[in-house]
From TrEMBL, chain A:
Gene3D superfamilies: Phosphorylase Kinase, domain 1, Transferase(Phosphotransferase) domain 1. Component of the EKC/KEOPS complex composed of at least BUD32, CGI121, GON7, KAE1 and PCC1; the whole complex dimerizes. Its EC number is 2.7.11.1. It comes from the Eukaryota. It comes from Xylaria grammica. SUPFAM superfamilies: Protein kinase-like (PK-like) (SSF56112). One of its GO terms (biological process) is tRNA threonylcarbamoyladenosine metabolic process. PANTHER family: EKC_KEOPS COMPLEX SUBUNIT TP53RK, NON-SPECIFIC SERINE/THREONINE PROTEIN KINASE. GO terms for molecular function: ATP binding; hydrolase activity; protein serine/threonine kinase activity. This is EKC/KEOPS complex subunit BUD32.
UniProtKB/TrEMBL annotation, chain B:
The keyword Hydrolase does not apply. Pfam families: CGI-121 (PF08617). The keyword Metal-binding does not apply. It is found in: Nucleus. Keywords: Nucleus, tRNA processing. This is EKC/KEOPS complex subunit CGI121. GO terms for cellular component: cytosol; EKC/KEOPS complex; nucleus. InterPro entries: CGI121/TPRKB, CGI121/TPRKB_sf. GO terms for biological process: tRNA threonylcarbamoyladenosine modification.
Length: 278, 217
């Protein structure tokens, strides 16, 4: 039970101290909060619980206010996306005073893992043919259609999120899940034949901890820029293809895309911070 | 089904073992006016969450409300007199209490009811609840059998199982869409498959309940 003891180095939020069929599992630990996997209402319903513990180094009154504000803002932004049809986890319960937010557990894995696995297989296949295996993914061959389709879905989802007035603040392929298709959600023209299901699934955006309501083209462009940089560093061989497909799909999903993409060019020139200070 | 128990008993995840949730569903109820009157008269023997089944979309919606009410009771943060009224209030996506009772609670004309009883063993001392209770001092604590007997005696209706199938047959989807402000949610109309549409509606309902009080900027 090494995992179990590791999970309990930190005191659990009070709500998770109450009995459950399986013990809560610590999934991730960030600077601001922890993510647990647990169950909601019934043993058969997995959930994610995000907990922002008290920060002893902050003034207690300020700390409580910041935590409340951040939990509520994350819950509101998730709810807004959900109502507007942007695929995000459903919010199950909120206790902003206790500093936690309980959400639907999204099945499937991060997009990052799926793309890396896809790239690894491709490399191995190339090497098996005696090539070096570091070829740039052009997106032109039939074998690459799955990846192009996935990148297109990412661009579309980001476009829809921006359209409803939310910017994410930390868009990466780790903060997008690939959820197995639910009945009749799978696009009819989707590429899913040929048995390779690695890149199949609905994109679900997660972790709205840094999200905010904004319709400024600057904020939207920074969102895209962060995604672009994150993608380039995790999947360098697909960077060019990614940028091209993302822009196309984003344009299709979002009417104001042209101004944002124009702004994105400026942001690329100077980096994410607008101000020269700080 | 006639000799099977009418109550389903559940122990919710992350709720103290002292709290159990007991649920019965009745359709073709003939005496809703009488039951409603007992609530108005604050008859302690009738302290239940009497929910109008037409606004219920799923088991989880009911259990979510129970979870929220119990959690608030434990934290001493209830906005209504007891855990059962709090449960009805927890179904609402808005903070208007009397409107919540009217919309989600029993009315004199209700025909189908979801009835929830939260039992606490050992009972919480009355000082721990929001309002002083007059029961539980003299009488022995209630058991699920007591609750079942009481409901069978006083609810004139047909007991049906607490399943998603039964609940969705009793749902008035138009009212659900109105109360949970889903009429402006365009993408929902695009979901053609009825079962998928109901599932998505249910998810939005759960989200609305969770966000109560959090929606004001």
């Amino acid at each position: 039970m090494a995992v179990d003891s590791a999970a309990h180095q930190f005191p659990l939020p009070a709500i998770l101290e109450h009995p459950s069929s399986t013990p809560p599992e610590l999934i991730a630990q960030g600077a601001e909060g922890r993510l647990y996997k647990s169950t909601y209402l019934l043993p058969s319903i997995p959930c994610a619980l995000k907990y922002r513990p008290p920060k002893p180094w902050r003034h207690p009154v300020l700390d409580a206010r910041l935590t409340r504000h951040r939990i509520l803002s994350e819950a509101r932004n998730l709810a807004k996306c959900h109502r507007e049809g942007v695929p995000v986890p459903t919010v199950y319960a909120v206790d902003e005073s206790a500093g936690w937010l309980m959400m639907e557990w999204v099945s499937g894995g991060p997009v990052r893992v799926a793309i890396n696995e896809w790239l690894r297989r491709r490399r191995d296949a190339e090497r098996a043919q005696g090539r070096s295996g570091d070829a740039i993914v052009e997106g032109t061959s039939e074998a690459e259609a799955d990846l192009v389709a996935l990148l297109r879905r990412i661009g579309a989802v980001v476009g829809r999120m921006h359209k409803v007035g939310i910017v994410h603040g930390d868009l990466t392929t780790s903060n997008m899940m690939l959820r197995p298709w639910e009945k009749d959600k799978q696009p009819v023209n989707g590429h899913n034949a040929e048995g390779d299901e690695l890149l199949e699934g609905e994109i679900v955006i997660i972790d709205f901890g840094l999200a905010s309501q904004s319709t400024s083209e600057e904020d939207r462009a920074v969102d895209l820029y962060v995604l672009e940089r994150a993608f380039a560093s995790t999947h360098p061989r697909a960077e060019k293809l990614f940028i091209a497909v993302l822009e196309t799909a984003y344009r299709e999903a979002f009417k104001q895309a042209p101004v944002v993409l124009k702004k994105l060019e400026d942001v690329r020139m100077r980096g994410r911070k607008r101000s020269m200070l700080g | 089904m006639s000799d099977s128990p009418i109550l389903e008993t559940l122990q919710l995840e992350h709720v103290p073992g002292t709290h159990s949730v007991h649920i019965a569903v009745f359709r073709d109820v003939e005496n809703a006016a009488f039951l409603h009157q007992q609530l108005l008269a604050r008859n302690a023997d009738f302290e239940y969450a009497f929910i109008d089944a037409s606004v219920i979309t799923s088991r989880l919606q009911v259990l979510s409300a129970a979870f929220k009410a119990i959690t608030l009771q434990l934290a001493g943060n209830m906005k209504t007199p007891n855990v059962h009224s709090e449960l009805v209030y927890s179904l609402s996506p808005t903070s208007n209490i009397s409107e919540a009772y009217r919309r989600y609670g029993i009315t004199p004309t209700s025909r189908a009811l979801v009835i929830v009883k939260v039992l606490v063993t050992p009972p919480v001392p009355s000082s721990a609840t929001a309002a002083p209770e007059t029961t539980s001092e003299a009488k022995p604590p209630l058991t699920a059998q007591d609750v079942e007997k009481h409901l069978l005696t006083h609810v004139q209706g047909k007991s049906v199982p607490f399943t998603d199938q039964v609940l969705s047959e009793l749902t008035d989807w138009g009212r659900v869409r109105k109360y949970y402000k889903l009429n402006g949610v365009g993408w929902l109309d695009g979901v053609k498959d009825q079962a998928a549409k109901n599932r998505e509606t249910d998810r939005l309902v759960m989200g609305g309940m969770a966000l109560r009080g959090a929606t004001a900027k």
